Amino acid sequence: MGRTAEITRETRETSIRVSLNIDGRGESRICTGIGFFDHMLTGFAKHGFFDLEVEVKGDLEVDTHHTVEDTGIVLGTALRKALGDKQGIVRYGSCMLPMDETLVLCALDLSGRPYLQWNASFGAERLGALETETIREFFYAVTYAAGINLHIRQMDGVNSHHIAEAMFKAFGKALDTAVRRDDRIEGVLSTKGGL
Questions:
Q1: Contact 169, 49 (CB under 8 A)
Q2: Which of 177, 155, 150, 180 is nearest to 166 (CA)?
């Protein structure tokens, strides 16, 4: 049986549907109303080999904050549901990803204990219509909804587009490693017996 989930969330600020297949081929259909954010989620899906559909109607007349944060909540919820009991998964994943002058480290643990350690900055206030400060909010929302311990560290870089894109791709690649099954793992990979 495939590790998939479809989650919808309706509030006064956003209407969101996310469909996720962890064991996919990197195919995506993304429509958030924010072009740059669509580009980032497409990169995440492609490099993580996740099949991902995202449909969002948000209050973009206000700004992009609610749309980006709430998409993170729904994506994280879909990831948690698709992972189920986490039997046999590797659990940990990391990626150090270069993109031109930029180098980003992403490391994560699917521990069930949410935490975001963020060490990055953007020189630009916006990338297209997207306020760059909402990128941290997206990752924060994903970590808390999915129960991920996530570290994102910008090692080098000055171009804000490259920094953001390296983050999303590195997150996809690290997550792809962490969700893989390993036949040597009996139950879950924990001395506690549960995640």
A1: no
A2: 155
Mean pLDDT of 120-140: 97
Q: Which residues contact 12 (CB under 8 A, 6 or more apart)?
A: none
Cβ-based neighbour number of residue 117 at 10 Å: 11
- Compute φ and ψ for 65, nearest 5 degrees: -60, -55
What lies within 8 Å, CB to CB, of 84 at 6+ separation is: 3
Model confidence, pTM: 0.96
Tokens (6 digits) for 70:
């709430």
Name the token pair of 60: 């973009």
Distance (Å, rounded) from C-alpha 150 to C-alpha 146? 11
Tell me, what DSSP letter sits at residue 95? E
At residue 169, φ and ψ (nearest 5 deg) are: -70, -45
